Amino acid sequence: MREKGQIILIIILILATSLGIGIAVVQRSLSDISTSSKVEQSSRAFSAAEAGIERALRTGSSESNLSVGQALVDVSVAPSIPQDTNALEYPPIGKEEVAQVWLANPDTLTSVYTNHSFDVYFGKTSTPLNDKPALEVTVVTLSGGSYNSTKKFFDADSIRVFTNGFQQVNCTSPSVTTNNNTSPTAFYCKATVSGYLGTPILARMRILYSNTSQPVVLAPTGDSSLPAQAKIFISTGTSGETQRKVQLFKLD
Asked: Which one of 62, 150, 182, 224 is at 20 to 30 Å from 39 when CA atoms are compared?
């Protein structure tokens, strides 16, 4: 009887082990199927979002519930920015990229921004101490039928200022209202650009001494306004339970 009891116990253990292995295999298979399905849905949603951006660039209008293959897409096209006296926030740029902001009408080059100074905000408030950015600003102006450029350099690092000759700026997380937010947003540094002559046409900003992409903002001073010059396209693709969003900043 004792041997029969042991045999039964061994059989139960074998069955329990086999059942456990079987359940684990089934769970793994279900997990693989779920992961594969999510990857496929993600790819469909992203492709739909890209297709939505391409369509919006052609039509210039917002649309919703567009069918793209097995996915749906919603596209939002914001009015031209900046509006009123808001600052223009450019998408984050790396040190090899240039952010260009129009000060004159981009279509006709007629004068819009007449002040001879403007503010620039740059850098993330979370910038590490060993990655402090500097900013190069080039202002293109028209005077006497000739185009001229004036360069200004601003640096947040007081030690570098002694060697590079840039203008020292105090970085105390200044804030400004931009086209991206209805409430003021804080940035790492703020500097005032002035001393250029002629009719302002455009400004180019370039990040220096930083290995990470940094946001840049050009803000009008006084009651002046920048010309409307850019649009933001936001396209959201949906496939199953997965959504993917693509945002495009298009400058005139």
From this structure: 62
